[in-house]
């Protein structure tokens, strides 16, 4: 088996270049690209021999590299994803797992630990620290419960009300919804009032939050 082809991405050029230099001394790894912006990741992943694992830095203040993950998985289905984070935020970990990440490591970890995670993920393994697995499972169960509750609430809506709520979730204004659905703005307001009553909330923002938890489109 040849060296594992790795792509590194972090907003801090000094960090990612220093990491690339450290990893380049490992005989089992081949750093084939680095990126400091999300829009550079896909370009950096284009390599004559492909990429096996992408190591992407993510955090709760700027999840740009996290958000580019679906595109990477679509273009390279076999690509392994490893998240490097500044902390062990369970909500961020949950988002990463949902986006297809199978490895998780903090920036304080040593090169050997990163090497172990990258190697495992390249073999199709999931490498999440044991201390986080219980919290992750709890978050997944909680998220699933919230999704089912939101879906149940949305099931009480009529087809037209679901269309209005889906449009609200996309950020459309009342006028835009009226034009899209070929109804009057007053009718949109009436539908919105009925939506709030059925979902048992008092604002459109709260209704949109339920719609998104229910994955309403």
Structural summary, described in words:
With 217 residues, the protein is an alpha/beta fold. It has two domains: 4-128, Response regulator (Rossmann fold, 3-Layer(aba) Sandwich), CATH 3.40.50.2300; 144-213, Arc Repressor Mutant, subunit A (Orthogonal Bundle). It contains eleven helices and five strands, in the order E-H-E-H-E-H-H-E-H-E-H-H-H-H-H-H. A five-stranded parallel beta sheet has the order 2-1-3-4-5, with helices on both faces. Helix 5 links the parallel strand 4 and strand 5. Helix 7 crosses helix 11 and helix 8 crosses helix 10 (185-199). The relative contact order is 0.09. The mean pLDDT is 83.
What is the beta-strand fraction? 5-15%
The number of helices is 11
Q: What fold name stands as the CATH topology of the largest domain?
A: Rossmann fold
CA-atom Rg in angstroms:
22 Å
Major sheet size, sense and barrel closure: 5 strands, parallel
**How many β strands by DSSP?**
5
Q: Any idea what the CATH architecture of the largest domain is?
A: 3-Layer(aba) Sandwich
Order of helices and strands: EHEHEHHEHEHHHHHH
Low-confidence stretches: none
The backbone outline, from C-alpha atoms, is elongated
How are strands sequenced across the largest beta sheet?
A: 2-1-3-4-5
